[in-house]
Amino acid sequence: MARILIADDEPIARENLQYVLRKDGYETLSVENGAAAIRELETKQFDLVMTDLRMHPVDGIQVLLRTKDLYPDTEVIVITGYATVRSAVEAMQKGAFHYIAKPYKIDDVRNLVRQALEKRSLRQEVTELRRKVKSQEEAHLLIGNSPEMEMLRKTIEQVAPTDCNVLILGETGTGKELVARTIHRLSPRAQRRFLAINCGAFSEELLANELFGHEREAFTGARGIKRGLLEVAQGGTILLDEIGDMPLSMQVKLLRVLQERTLMRVGSTQEIPIDIRVMAATNRDLKLEVENGTFRQDLFYRLNVITLTVPRLAERKDDILVLSLHFLRRFSGAQNKAIEAISDEAMDVLLAYEFPGNVRELENIMERAVTLAGGKTIEAEHLPADLRVLGVRMSQQQRGFMTLEENEKEYIKWVLEQVNDNKTKAAEILGIDRVSLWRKLKRYSEM
Question: Residue 219 belongs to what domain range?
Answer without folding.
Answer: 141-311
